[in-house]
Design a protein that fits this description.
Oligomer: single chain
Shape: globular
Number of helices: 10
InterPro entries: Galactosyl_T_C, Glyco_trans_2-like, Glycosyltransf_2, Nucleotide-diphossugar_trans
Keywords: Transferase
Helix content: 40-55%
Pfam families: Glyco_transf_7C, Glycos_transf_2
Protein name: Family 2 glycosyl transferase
Distance between the termini: 55 Å
Largest sheet: 8 strands, mixed
CATH class of the largest domain: Alpha Beta
CATH topology of the largest domain: Spore Coat Polysaccharide Biosynthesis Protein SpsA, Chain A
Organism: Meiothermus ruber (strain ATCC 35948 / DSM 1279 / VKM B-1258 / 21) (Thermus ruber)
Number of strands: 8
CATH architecture of the largest domain: Alpha-Beta Complex
Strand order of the largest sheet: 3-2-1-4-7-6-8-5
CATH superfamily of the largest domain: Spore Coat Polysaccharide Biosynthesis Protein SpsA, Chain A
């Protein structure tokens, strides 16, 4: 059985859309929603929701971030396979079955295909179409793995409590543990990125800083190059993007903010 782990924070409307999309999925699975510091009507909705699949939810107050919420959800799971998928990622037909079929060999980490709605394409929001996936593509959006492997590497690091960092940190540790990484084209989900348009630049800045912290944690220069936060890359981006970011369209602003966030993490301002 697959256990679908869904962290959520004050996004009842899009969470409801996700859960209703899951109602049409065949296969043996359960869904665990972790309401992380919700102050809207999410809890009232979850208390009244009666789906056709096995369903559990828990509340965390105060909210401690996605990494902690995913760990808590995994701790409740009864399935041998954990499928992490955020509240604004809408599964398409055959999603559960595709992830189930991917686990024919041990220590497999399956990364599904992730697409964006037209309004968000080119903004820097996460999108993955294959044909391959790498450790830095392992995210809480559309990734499944054996529960035993997740526990072996220690799960998500709750020290990454802000935006960004927890996914590549987990992906790197899974790679080091010898996980078999596969891209599953049939496991399609649409990343609606519910609040992305209004917060894209600030999220990019936070992600740049968080990815520097991933490198600082593991001290492997491959991380800095793969995540685009090596000081050489950051310096080049800061030198060139102010003049040429327009050539990248909407993504130019995202890339510049990402570089600024990384630069600030490399060179934190001294205390006055």
């Amino acid at each position: 059985m697959i256990s679908v782990i869904v962290p959520t924070h004050n996004r009842r409307e899009v969470l409801a859309k996700k859960l209703r999309a899951l109602e049409n999925q065949p296969g043996a699975f359960e869904v665990i929603v972790v309401a992380d510091g919700c102050t809207d009507d999410t809890l009232e909705f979850l208390q009244q929701y009666k789906p056709p699949f096995a369903f559990h939810f828990l509340e965390i107050t105060p909210g401690l971030g996605a990494a902690n919420a995913r760990n808590r959800g995994a701790g409740m799971a009864r399935g041998d396979i954990l499928l992490f998928s955020d509240d604004d990622v809408i599964p398409q037909p055959g999603w559960i079955e595709a992830h189930q079929k991917a686990h024919t060999r041990p220590r497999t980490v399956a990364v599904g295909r992730l697409e964006l709605p037209p309004a968000l394409r080119g903004t820097g929001a996460a999108e993955l179409k294959g044909p391959r996936a790498f450790w830095w593509n392992i995210t809480g959006n559309n990734t499944s793995l054996p529960r035993a492997l997740f526990e072996e590497v220690g799960g998500y690091d709750p020290a990454f409590s802000g935006y960004g960092g927890e996914d590549p940190d987990l992906g790197y540790r899974l790679m080091r543990a010898g996980a078999r990484l596969v891209f599953v084209r049939e496991a399609l989900a649409v990343h609606e990125a519910f609040d992305y348009q209004g917060q894209a630049i600030e999220k990019a800045r936070q992600a740049g800083a968080a990815h520097v912290r991933v490198w600082q944690k593991h001290h492997d220069p491959r991380i800095a190059w793969a995540l685009g936060v090596h000081p050489v890359l950051v310096s080049l981006k800061l030198a060139l993007l102010p003049s040429f970011k327009g050539l990248l369209g909407a993504r130019g602003d995202y890339e510049l903010a990402y570089a600024w966030g990384a630069s600030e993490a490399w060179n934190p301002p001294s205390a006055s």
